Amino acid sequence: MTNRLNVLKESLEKKKALLESKFDEYFKDVASTNGQPLNDKRNGRATLNRWDKQSAAIRKLQEEITITKSAIEKEEGKINDVRKTNDTLPQAILELVESGVLQQWRKHPTTFFVTGVSKGRIQWTGNNLAHKYLRDVPGTEYPLFRDVFNQLRKDLGLVKS
User: Fold this and answer.
1) Residues 101, 115 contacting (CB under 8 angstroms)
2) Contact call for residues 118 and 93 (beta carbons, < 8 A)
3) In 13, 39, 109, 121, which residue has its Cα 20 to 30 A from 4's Cα atom?
């Protein structure tokens, strides 16, 4: 489970608790009229306006909960995509990801970033290793990127002797 998924689930729980309290507040307010018609009361219109505001707040919170649930489903889908992709990745790449040398991009699970390098990407195409945006890698970070990329090619047996 990722940190983002944890944050989303915590947010959902907070929103559900807030919704419950909003419902309780609304029902207590409605019960305070004691079943009397509002047109007979002095502040009937003000009471109806307050109820409308409370109803709008409840609807907005319900929409936010729906959005958060969608975000959780999307995040879980990304996690599943990464797991499926990791089943097909070579062990050498997975070891570098686990050690923190490479960071896997969840949007495109076959694309990796070298930790400490700002622009370059390493991409696994199923049977070959490629680099992208190499020209954008700053000169001071290039040796690190080069060393990781070349060592990974050796580990995968893609370098011809």
Assistant:
1) yes
2) no
3) 121
Place of tokens 């997975």: 94
**Confidence (pTM):** 0.73
Q: What is the DSSP letter of 116?
A: T
Q: CA-CA distance, 47 to 45, in Å (whole number)? A: 5
Report the distance separating Cα 100 and Cα 155, nearest Å: 17
Cα–Cα nearest to 149, from 119, 111, 114, 100:
114
Ranges of beta strands (E only) in 35-138 are 102-104, 111-114, 121-124, 129-132
Confirm if 68 and 11 have CB atoms less than 8 A apart: yes
The structure tokens listed for 63 are 């929409």
Query: Tokens 């505001």 sit at which residue?
Result: 53
State the Cα–Cα distance between residues 142 and 133, nearest whole angstrom. Answer: 11
Residue type, 156: L
